[in-house]
Design goal:
Layout: E1 8-16, E2 27-35, E3 38-44, H1 50-53, E4 57-67, E5 69-71, H2 83-90, H3 95-100, H4 105-114, H5 117-132, E6 136-142, H6 149-165, E7 169-177, H7 188-205, E8 211-214, H8 223-235, E9 241-244, H9 252-258, E10 263-266, H10 272-281, E11 284-287, H11 289-294, H12 303-309, E12 313-315, H13 329-338, H14 344-350, H15 353-358, E13 376-379, H16 385-389, E14 396-400
Parallel strand pairs: 1-4, 5-6, 6-7, 7-8, 9-10, 10-11, 11-12
Antiparallel strand pairs: 1-2, 2-3, 4-13, 13-14
Helix pairs in contact: 5-6, 6-7, 7-8, 9-10, 13-14
Bound molecules: N-(iminomethyl)-L-glutamic acid and fe (iii) ion (FE).
Pathway: Amino-acid degradation; L-histidine degradation into L-glutamate; N-formimidoyl-L-glutamate from L-histidine: step 3/3
Binding site for 4-imidazolone-5-propanoate: 82, 145, 178, 246, 323
Keywords: Cytoplasm, Histidine metabolism, Hydrolase, Iron, Metal-binding, Zinc
Length: 405
């Protein structure tokens, strides 16, 4: 940012989609004043405060500005790939059958444990760069392919390193309760002991985890086991979230809500009671259309019920080597509309305002409003709907994080 006399700059000639609330629409002749990395003013040009009108300006020729995108659910750090399983699923094997036969998450655990830090970083950087190229300024990154103390911490350190390597805000999540590692076969409670007594405390002590997540499912952990993980997280002062109701209904979302979870994610098999519990707790529903698509799921999450109950809805890529080998958040917006029936406004709000809320960052980013970080995406399109509408198109003109291009 140009260090003017007042230290500010003004972006002019913008069509502004502030995404401050659902259905806000756009401001045709908008400006954004930025100072110290934060938004000082955003609104119609004629309302720009006089002292800011003296700051150096940059004209954007009528382009659309939205909040920079936020991917609030990813597994970006992992070793290897699972293209073989993709082929097996096409031959009829289910995600659960592959997992029970020792493939799935466990095969990525093997590849991740044997990868060096440098290899993990290089692989994740390629994926992160694809996201940044689409206007993502904040990304959540989970562990969960280590499933032992050393590798879980290594994954989280690599996630932190990604935030140093690029101009992007990285939020880390410890997902040690993702699957049962092979060496604990038949002893899943003992593995939960390891998670609660060793892995989470170590991650917290090193400042490596901003939140704690788990996978509550027949092929993973029970609600009782997840309740133990949540209690351990709370004792460490860490917020929680959960992969819930992806393949079946175990009441995971309601459990997460009772623990004050930031979000419950996937939710294809969520029922009305789960929706009500989430609404009461203010837990965000994170929809992951890439996993829905990849697993050829036919039961969609109960979007109408979520909407009716006022549950905030976010959209993310779930980028991972198994159920969602996708790094395009823009494509996720399209899928959220076409497959899950979100409106384009809901989809974009889900990858900005509500995604920020799902990360506990609602006061810092996710909308274009005075006081928030100047995390802004400027696009070569005219309306916000166009972002979700085309397939395979990347209309990004420029991404600003904290006001910096
Ligand atoms: O979000 N549901 C569990 N975890 C991931 C998939 C991980 C994997 O298959 O490697 C998900 O879909
Ligand atoms: Fe996931």
């Amino acid at each position: 940012m140009a260090a003017g006399f007042s230290g500010g700059q003004v972006l002019t000639g913008l069509r502004l989609a502030t995404m401050a609330a659902p259905g806000t629409g756009t401001i045709p002749d908008g400006v954004i004043a930025i100072r110290d990395g934060h938004i000082a003013f955003a609104g119609p040009a004629e309302e720009l405060p006089r002292e800011m009108a003296r700051w150096p300006g940059r004209d954007y020729g009528g382009r659309l500005a939205t909040p920079a995108l936020i991917d609030c659910h990813t597994h970006l750090v992992f070793g290897g790939h699972r293209a073989r399983e993709f082929a097996l699923r096409l031959e009829g094997a289910s995600y659960e059958e592959i997992a029970r036969a020792g493939g799935g998450i466990r095969s990525t655990v093997t590849a991740t444990r044997s990868a060096s830090d440098g290899e993990l970083l290089a692989g994740a950087l390629t994926r992160l760069d694809a996201m940044i190229a689409e206007g993502v300024a904040t990304v959540e990154i989970k562990s969960g392919y280590g499933l032992d103390l050393e590798t879980e911490l290594r994954m989280l350190r690599v996630a932190r390193a990604l935030g140093q390597a690029r101009q992007v805000r990285v939020v880390t999540t410890c997902l040690a309760a993702h699957a049962l590692p092979e060496e604990y076969t038949g002893r899943s409670d003992a593995y939960i002991d390891l998670v609660c007594d060793r892995i989470l405390p170590a991650a917290a002590a090193e400042g490596l985890a901003d939140a704690v997540d788990g996978f509550c499912e027949g092929i993973a952990f029970s609600p009782e086991q997840m309740a133990r993980v949540f209690a351990a997280a709370r004792a460490l002062g860490l917020p929680v979230k959960l992969h819930a109701e992806q393949l079946s209904n175990l009441g995971g979302a309601a459990l997460a809500a009772r623990h004050g979870a930031l979000s419950a994610d996937h939710l294809e098999y969520l029922d009305a009671a789960g929706v009500q519990a989430m609404a009461a707790a203010g837990t965000v529903a994170v929809l992951l259309p890439g996993a829905f698509y990849t697993l050829r799921e036919t039961q969609a999450p109960p979007v109408a019920l979520l909407r009716e109950a006022g549950v905030p809805i976010a959209v993310a890529t779930d980028a991972n080597p198994g159920s969602s080998p996708m790094t395009s958040l823009i494509l996720a917006l399209n899928m959220a509309c076409t497959l899950l029936r979100l409106t384009p406004d809901e989809a974009l709000g889900g990858a900005t305002r509500e995604a920020a809320r799902a990360l506990g960052l609602g006061a810092e980013t996710g909308t274009i409003e005075a006081g928030k970080a100047a995390d802004i995406a400027i696009w070569n399109i005219e309306t916000p709907e166009e972002l979700a509408y085309r397939i395979g198109d990347n209309p990004l003109h420029q991404r600003l994080t904290g006001g910096r291009a």
